[in-house]
Amino acid sequence: MEGLTTSRVVPVQVPCRKLSSLFANFSCLELRRYPCGGRVSIMNQSKLLRPVTASVQPQELSALGHEGNVVPSNEILDLWESVEAVCFDVDSTVCVDEGIDELAEFCGAGKAVAEWTARAMGGSVPFEEALAARLSLFKPSLSKVEEYLEKRPPRLSPGIEELVKKLRANNIDVYLISGGFRQMINPVASILGIPRENIFANNLLFGNSGEFLGFDENEPTSRSGGKAKAVEQIRKVRLYKTMAMIGDGATDLEARKPGGADLFICYAGVQLREAVATKADWLIFKFETLINSLD
């Protein structure tokens, strides 16, 4: 991001210097490691993983009581049909999994980390607090992350490939804005044809021996309100007139604000978070709903 010249590692405080800009090109990197008091190498982009389209069963509308925003108003439909850019959350939206939960489970700490994730996505604790707490429970090493990426291909939500293809065919720019990690999001972006400069996410940091150091705190998505900040920066630079944010969590809802997203669409095909769904402009359970509205 603009103006970032130093990075702080969380939870371990290690000064790290880097050069950054709003649309930095990450096309050649899969994992980034910053020089923190010694030599640190960089892992080249891994081979493209074959995606798995997961089967998701949307929850029954009769039990939800959200009929008011399941059927969008004409005003909301007009906004959607006029968007110039769409920002997607990744975990439980573009993909059916919560990436950090899956990595934690792979490392043997799945249950404890999933409990923190539920609290963070519901908005009951600051995101940065939950992120640091979750990582401290299992401290993934570089070798473990590499093994995870090799053995666990992305599981895409049904219809997301078709929706992104439709948006791009309509000359609508697509972004991925996530509190997850680039290490797991880069392969997803490659599958969907989304350029790396359109990814805003966190970074795991590793030392000379591949040991876990923390995460880059200067990424805007590492803290509460970070997704909103990312959307604001995108809009400021690209001068979009109308933008939409699509996601399932409280941090996605935060992106709908003056100067940010004009429209928040809650995708509940994986997780229905009541506190978020009730405040959405439009509640959907299948991406086909959005695809059909663009015809």
TrEMBL record:
InterPro entries given in the database record: HAD-like_SerB, HAD-like_sf, HAD_sf, PSP
Official protein name in the record: phosphoserine phosphatase
What Pfam families does this protein's entry cite? Answer: Hydrolase (PF00702)
Return the broad EC class. Answer: hydrolase
NCBIfam families assigned: HAD-SF-IB (TIGR01488), serB (TIGR00338)
> What does the record give as the organism's lineage?
Eukaryota, Viridiplantae, Streptophyta, Embryophyta, Tracheophyta
Q: What is its EC number?
A: 3.1.3.3
Q: Which UniProt keywords apply?
A: Amino-acid biosynthesis, Hydrolase, Magnesium, Metal-binding, Serine biosynthesis
The UniProt entry's sequence similarity note says: Belongs to the HAD-like hydrolase superfamily. SerB family.
Q: In which pathway does it act?
A: Amino-acid biosynthesis; L-serine biosynthesis; L-serine from 3-phospho-D-glycerate: step 3/3
Q: Which cofactor does it need?
A: Mg(2+)
Q: Which domain of life is it from?
A: Eukaryota
- Listed SUPFAM superfamilies: HAD-like
Q: Does the keyword Amino-acid biosynthesis apply?
A: yes
